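Study this chain:
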Amino acid sequence: MKNRTYHDILAKVLEAAKGTDGTTKTRIMYGAYLSSNQLKEYITYCQGHGLISYDARKRVYKTTIKGIRS
């Protein structure tokens, strides 16, 4: 297996969170093949740049329009 770049992993995270109802942190972690610690870094980055939003009531993450375009 070849090494993935930061952008490859970021694309996987955004793709994993692209569902219509949102998805849990665990589903994103498995979809992007990341550990919990790695996922925290990517989620923080994505939220800081407006690529992923978090619904605290449902406790799910969802890719924003900006994230889909990226």
Observations:
- Residues 36-48 form the longest helix (13 residues).
- The radius of gyration is 11 Å.
- Helices lie at 6-16, 25-32, 36-48, 65-69.
